[in-house]
Amino acid sequence: MQIIDGKETAKQIRSEIAAEVEQMVAAGKKRPHLAAILVGHDGGSETYVANKIKACEECGFTSTLRRFEEDITEAALLDEVRKLNEDADVDGFIVQLPLPKHISEEKVTEAIDPRKDVDGFHPQNVGRMTIGAPAFISATPQGIVDLLLRYKIETKGKNAVIIGRSNIVGRPMSILLSQKGIDCTVTICHSRTANLKEICRNADIIVAAIGKPGTVTEDMVKEGAVVIDVGTTRVTDPTAARGWRLKGDVDFQTVSPKCSYITPVPGGVGPMTIVSLMKNTLLAAKKAIYK
Length: 291
Hints:
Elements: E1 2-3, H1 6-26, E2 33-39, H2 43-59, E3 62-68, H3 74-86, E4 92-95, H4 105-111, H5 123-130, H6 139-150, E5 159-163, H7 170-178, E6 185-189, H8 196-201, E7 205-208, E8 225-229, E9 233-236, E10 244-247, H9 252-255, E11 259-262, H10 269-285
Parallel strand pairs: 1-11, 2-3, 2-4, 5-6, 5-7, 7-8, 8-11
Antiparallel strand pairs: 9-10
């Protein structure tokens, strides 16, 4: 069994991006600029945005954070999106989700210029990804693909099972794994799947992205399977310094001995999500997706 070290892989990719940015600057081009909009004071969102800003520094990017209180109106937020769309110095930007209930996430996502949509959530980028055209691909699925490629994990003709059908992970993951070059045969499972254990037992690759700790157990995994755990749920733990710890969708202790490769939580998929956002920002700065 080999642990897939997302933390170390992300560090390598940040170093590669930083080297390319310095070459760009030396050639007289501007530094890539990532902006973020943060509404309210959600703890998880605060941490995530802080990690993105730190990653920007390590990659040599310029970063801007625009903070707004939870009572900002939908119209005012859409106006902020418009300003970033029109700001020539900003190469890409994100609106950190979730948003307050009185604001439509769909409206905000669709208001973002697809050429600056480095989260890869705009329908135009989702559509382009689906047909295999150049696109900004949502960060978590792209990060998982990068891990599979960098660890030289065989995917051609393999049976891949994805647990979870979200628009952020499950659905795009199914498309990426089935595309030419990756060539998996893909099954999507979800909360209504009747025979989840039997389906998983036939999987060469399992991607667990359902957000329920310990969903994937030892009896669901065949010997030699590759298991990618996307889940990051805070669970109470009095023995931990913070009173809680992160737990994945996979019962790591019992499942890992059966695996050829497995991602830990934390330190697996999480770091790759942020570095994929950095990769998209670099692509936006280079005008590599939309000429």
